[in-house]
Specification:
Elements lengths: L13 H18 L6 E5 L2 H12 L3 E5 L19
Parallel strand pairs: 1-2
Helix pairs in contact: 1-2
Length: 83
């Protein structure tokens, strides 16, 4: 099954946030040699960290949610849950 963890305590520690975002950006830069144009943040935790990562990479940020949950023009794709 899926194991959910409380990630909100990290937001109480600016150094921890900086470390997390830096590690994610370093991993992306080490594994993807081309310029990253877009970071897609999956609902809802991705909305918290995605913009910070995108900013560091000078990339756009795109939120991803279930159909009908975002305002404005959207794209959609079919998917299957892993559980």
């Amino acid at each position: 099954g899926i194991l959910f963890r409380d990630i909100f305590p990290i937001f109480q520690d600016p150094k921890a946030i900086e470390m997390l975002v830096s590690h994610v950006v370093d991993h992306i830069n080490a594994t993807i040699k081309e310029k990253v144009d877009v970071i897609v943040g999956l609902d809802a935790r991705g909305f918290l960290f995605g913009p910070m990562v995108a900013l560091r990479l000078n990339a756009a940020f795109v939120p991803s949610r279930k159909k009908g949950k975002l305002p404005g023009k959207t794209l959609s794709a079919d998917f299957k849950k892993e559980y």
